TrEMBL record:
A GO MF label: integrin binding
Signal peptide per UniProt: 1-18
Pfam families associated with the record: VBS (PF08913)
Main location: cytoplasm
GO cellular component terms, semicolon-separated: cytoplasm; focal adhesion; plasma membrane
Keyword Cytoplasm found: yes
Subcellular location: Cytoplasm
UniProt cross-references to PANTHER family, sorted A to Z: TALIN, TALIN-2
A biological-process GO annotation: actin cytoskeleton organization
Organism name: Chroicocephalus maculipennis (Brown-hooded gull)
Keywords of the record: Cytoplasm, Signal
Official protein name in the record: TLN2 protein
Superkingdom of the organism of origin: Eukaryota
Residues annotated as domain Vinculin-binding site-containing: 15-116
Length: 159
């Protein structure tokens, strides 16, 4: 999902760059449409599994808003292909690309908000793994007899 979000701005940049070569816009618009389709599918799954529910709603809403922005961008690209010398349409295409880039960042922020619990679990799992590794190391040294005992008890008695 995140990969698609990073790819979309590349297409927007190419679209705004293609203002000087409007014949390239059709292929770029087609590619962006395909990428958005994949993004929408992944976004639907991310929204369904997000906790709390309001994060899922936020992901779904922002992906939809991004879709609307993509529609406007494709429409402006088509209009520029029809009239490649129209400077007003060129400016509108660039503005649509900027708006879509903003919407991509909003989708990313919603995904990051939904990812906080996952990141906390990853951090906790990492900390627990570190503790387990430290305990294993301590057990290894204790078994080898290299740790100083406070009294005459052996490690095997406590293990």
């Amino acid at each position: 999902l995140v990969i698609f979000l990073f790819l979309l701005p590349v297409f927007f940049f190419q679209m705004t760059k293609s203002v000087t070569n409007p014949e390239e816009l059709g292929g770029l618009a087609s590619q962006m449409t395909n990428d958005y389709g994949h993004l929408a599918l992944q976004g639907r799954m991310a929204a369904a599994t997000a906790e709390p529910e309001e994060i899922g709603f936020q992901i779904r809403t922002r992906v939809q808003e991004l879709g609307h922005g993509c529609i406007f961008l494709v429409q402006k690209a088509g209009a520029l292909q029809i009239c490649p010398t129209d400077s007003y349409t060129k400016r509108e295409l660039i503005e649509c690309a900027r708006a879509v880039t903003e919407k991509v960042s909003l989708v990313l922020s919603a995904l990051q908000a939904g990812n906080k619990g996952t990141q906390a679990c990853i951090t906790a799992a990492s900390a627990v793994s570190g503790i387990i590794a430290d305990l294993d190391t301590t057990i290894m040294f204790a078994t080898a007899g290299t740790l100083n005992a406070e009294n005459n008890e052996s490690f095997a008695d406590h293990r």
